Amino acid sequence: MTIVRIACILFTVLPSLTAAAKADDLLIWSPAKLSERSYKATMGFRLPAEWETSAGADIALAATKSGAPLPDSEQAMLWGRIVRTNVTPAGQSQRGVKVSVDTLRGSGALTLSRSRSWILSDSLDMQSSRSVSVGYDPIDARQASVTASQALKLIHPWTGTSLSAGAGLSNASGDFSSSVAVSQTILPNLNLDASMTNPFSQDEAGSVNLRYRLNW
Fold this sequence. Notes:
By secondary structure, the protein is mainly β. Helix content is 9%, strand content 61%. The protein contains 1 helix and 12 strands, in the order αββββββββββββ. Strands 1-2-3-4-5-6-7-8-9-10-11-12 form a 12-stranded antiparallel sheet, covered by helices on one side. The model is unreliable at 1-22 (pLDDT under 50). Residues 1-23 form the signal peptide. Keywords: Signal.
């Protein structure tokens, strides 16, 4: 099935689903021009409930100057997500399930995630997240893989300073990875970030970035 056929099917099915929802704000439609000759669109629908459900597709394509599609540039990813969020005066927690299927390459993934943020003290907030992902790729030697990750972040909201640490383990490679990072807000839209991956190991690597964000 070519990407053109997939696009035609999605454009035919999704309007009927969103019409059943009978609300314009439930429609997901986000086209973007990534470069002069590459495009991407996210389309789908969402259904608000205690467990918010959304589903759709990501379609992308890039072409040469002559108009011919670039090899391996096509993307037709189907995805679905179920999320439940609980908010209390002391914090917020979220649980979710996400599934994605690459219809062109036959790969897919199922991810279970859980995150929580809460007030640790008068001057500190804490965030934690963990996820387990089961993936399948028919091209890889080990077609099925399981990856687990966990992260913690300590935030000082009054100064815009945060310190985070994370770790991950994959059964496909058997590798254990870890990272530490610190972020400091200099101006409302200007952040200084420093991070290090796999500290105290032969694969140790670090980076320092100055990020400026502009919204309009």
